[in-house]
Design brief:
The protein is of the alpha+beta class and about 110 residues long. It has helices at about 65-90, 90-105; strands at about 5, 35, 40-45, 50, 55-60. It has two domains: about 1-60, no CATH class; about 65-105.
Length: about 110
């Protein structure tokens, strides 16, 4: 029986566990659905039911997702800093507007 669910740094884990306890295993369900018949636990993966073994379930994100999140966080910080500088230095804001205008004209 599962006693604990652990997620990595990008996953928030709900600590309550509810089980589907119908007598016959469903043919399909939402991915992540847990089924328990009193003896065996299975989770629906989206493609089928996989047996759950052990007392702890570990969930983790694909390493690529972590890279994307890190990139997005850096991009947001860079954009915030750029906006701050443009407010402080109007000439920089005008230069950025000129750049965007020229970029748009060249792209068309």
């Amino acid at each position: 029986m599962i006693n604990n669910i652990r997620g990595d740094d990008l996953l928030n884990v709900q600590r309550t566990i509810s089980y589907n306890t119908t007598s016959a295993i469903p043919h399909s369900a939402e991915p992540g659905t847990v089924w328990f018949d009193g003896h065996q636990m299975r989770v629906f993966t989206g493609g089928g039911w996989e047996e759950i073994r052990g007392e702890t379930v570990y969930l983790q994100c694909d390493p690529q997702l972590k890279k994307v999140v890190a990139w997005a966080e850096k991009k947001m910080a860079d954009e915030a800093r750029e906006a701050e500088l443009q407010e402080k230095f109007p000439a920089l804001k005008q230069a950025k507007n000129n750049y965007n205008l020229i970029r748009k004209m060249v792209a068309e």
